[in-house]
Each structure stands twice: as structure tokens, then as C-alpha cells.
Protein: Pyridine nucleotide-disulfide oxidoreductase
Organism: Sphaerochaeta halotolerans
Amino acid sequence: MRIIDVLVIGGGASGLQAAITTKTTYPEKEVVLVRKEEQVLIPCGIPYIFGTLSDSSKDILPDKLLTSVGVEIIVDEMSEIKVQERQCAFASGETIQYSKLILALGSIPTKPGWLKGGDLERVYTIPKNKVYLDQMLEELKGLKEIIVIGAGFIGVEVSDELNKKGYHVTLLEIEKVILNRAFDDEFGVLAQEHLEERGVNVITGKGASEIKGKDGKVNEVVLTSGEHIKADAVILSIGYAPNTAIAKAAGIELNEFDFIKTCEYMRVLPCTSDIVAVGDCAEKRDFVTRKLDRTMLASTACAEARTAGMNLYSLSPCKPFTGTIAIYSTAIGNHAFGTAGITEARATAENFSVICGSFTGMDTHPGNLEHSHKQMVKLIVASDCGMILGAEVYGGTSVGELTNAIGFLIQNRVMVKQLLTMQIGTQPLLTGSPAGYPLIKAAEVVVKKMRC
């Protein structure tokens, strides 16, 4: 039986980041990462293998990220965790004894049992599995009518990419607007308009009640309205569940949503220093509401993984993970959308008293350059103290990094009035005008409302 210092289970974003952080923080420790895949996909790049990339081999996490810092990679599948013995057993028959165990078990796409016809041929999900997705891409060749069910980020991006490849795509969303969990309605409506301009047929306010088939293969989807839509294939993009069955079997406690219970240092609860959990399998709370949260993002996973790795052998009170800010961004053609924190709708539902302010300007100055794009910023601010609780952004390619910056403002509990004296660097080709910077102008709108 092999004995090692740190055993990481899972080769996705959280496992990779946890292994790298652990090895660079504690270089004297032996760190071994075990994953069941020969090659690991970059999770956020998966939708783009359906169009822009056209090949999953262009979306691979390079092993050199691990091996260059001294992390050993083993391709195997864990079959059992023996908590008391500090051991993990594997499908190969090998058993490894660890000093520290990092669980980065990931998530699996959901296929609801209530959806009749979900087991027909050509009904797909979007797992982080290269073999499955390669087979799916091959089977889609020659087909024409594809229905994507669920208009979250993955559903929207997959629909747009398939549309680029010439498929006739229908995106089906039971809520009244797309991207409704991440954005307020005005942003969702705008995203839908851009998708439809590009040729995607978007249906909102209606769900799928049944998938029907002929000779075992999909041939139509019945909507909750009773309508029938022809389909050669159906892609389910209706969420993911934490992959925690093996942890549960080992007696590790799960919360009500089946995530592994963890503390702010990502140690498994009841508190043990031997096992940590990170990424999609790990419990997390919303940064603003403090409620248990189901957000699954590679960016959140990597933040948790860095926290776990840095605190694995020695806790630092300035390095906890204090909750997910849910920072997302996506692009539809040349138009980008970003969000951080909570939306106005969510804030209201959670009983926060908020003031919101929006401003639309340009992301260059002058705004008539060839690559100029409108930039709209919406701030959601606590009315009693002025703390920034959330923000939504629409614009061009600068949206992603602006959203990241706003996320940092939220994480550091910045007050909206501090933005009024915010010092920025501007350049005509790269940013909005210093006199009309949309983030600062949105703050001015909020502060004016606060004075009224």
C-alpha cells in the first residue's frame, strides 16, 4: 500500500487548482492527483466544441500545469473512501493511504425522472466527459432540428454554437426570460434579442412535458402548452447535481442539497483537518444572503481550491472562503453580458431594501471607433448603508474583466459612494471616457436616489 502526504481526487478545475496551490504552498509535501479521465476538458470551454472550436481536443487542460510544479498524475477511479483508516481504494485494486485528502469530485448533469422520453436515443446532456461529448458530436452530424431545454449559460452558449454550425436550434425555457437566475429581466430580454438576431428560435414561458420518439429515437418534443415541435435531437441543460454518492457512502455528511458540508477553510464538517472538499461537490453559501447556495462555477471552484490548498496544514485567518459571489459572464456574438452578486429581483425576494442605478455609455472614447460598443452598468446597492450587493453589465469584450473587478468590490464590501472618487486609468481604444465611465456614472445615479 502506497503512503503519500496529499491525495487529490478529481482532475477538473478545482482538483487541478487545489493540487497546484498545495504543492506550491508546501513544496516539501508529496502531492498526487488521481483522475479517471485520460484527458480533462476545460469546463467553461465545453459549449464551444459545438461550434467555434469544432473539436474537443482543442479544449484540454494541459497536464504540464501539474507536472511542472511536481504534482504526480494517476489515471484511475476511486471506488471507496475509508475515513477512519485515511485510505482510498481504487478500481485498479490499489489502495493509497493519505495524510490529507482533497475531494474535488465535481458534478453530474441532471436528467429528471419526471420528463417522459428522457431515455430515448439522441437525448443528450452536457457532462465534462470528453469520450461522451466526442460521441455526441459524431452522432449530431447529419441531423438538422435540435432542441435545447434550459436557457442558463450553458444552454444559451450551446444553442448559439450549434446555430453557427448550421443546425436549426430551438432554445426552450420555462421561465419568462432567458438567463433569469443570473440577470434581471432587462438583460435577459436583450440577450434573447441577440440570440434571435443570430437565428436561434427562442421559446420562453413554456417547458417540455414529454419527449416523443419513433423507433427508439427522438422525433418531437411536446410543450407544456400542448404544442409539438419536431426534433432530431434534444439537449438537456437543466442543471447539475454534486457528485457525492461515494462521499455519502463513506459516512461524510452532506447538506440538504447533497453537497459535502464544509467550513470556511473548506474542511469537511464535523470539522476535521484530514479531509477538505472543493468545487462543485462542496457546500457553499451565498456571499450576500449567507444562505446555502447551489452555484457551480469553475471560478468559484478555483477560489475554494486556493483556499483549501493554502490552509491545508496551517490555517490563516486572512485566507478563508467567505461565500460565492457568483461572478458570471458570457458572449453572444460581439455582445457580452456579466453579473456579480445578487440581482435586483433576488435582493427583493430576500427582503433586502435596495436602490438600483443604471447608466449606458460607450466602452471607448470617442464612441464611434470601429470596435466601440455600448456599455450598460446596473448597480444593486443596500439602501441603508450603500454597500454594493450586485451588478450587471452589458457591452463588448471588456465586460468580462469589468465584471471581475466589480466582483472584487462586492467581496470587499465597498460602499457605492467610494466609486464617486474612484481613480481609473483610461485610454481611448480600451476604456470609456473618464468623464462618462459607466460604472462611476451608475454609482452617481444611485447616490442621487439615496439623497432624495
Remarks:
- The CA atoms of residues 31 and 325 lie 30 Å apart.
